[in-house]
Write a structure and sequence with these properties.
FAD-dependent oxidoreductase; FAD/NAD-bd_sf; alpha+beta; two-stranded parallel ribbon
Length: 34
């Protein structure tokens, strides 16, 4: 099981942008889409 630093709820445009910014800051995001 992987460890994540950030949980992003929703994978549309704003969710993907949030995950992208987290990656640029060295964090490891998980995207949760319903």
């Amino acid at each position: 099981m992987s460890d994540y630093n950030v949980l992003v709820v929703g994978g549309w445009q704003s969710g993907l942008a949030a995950a992208h910014h987290a990656l640029r800051r060295g964090l490891k995001p998980a995207i949760l889409e319903a």
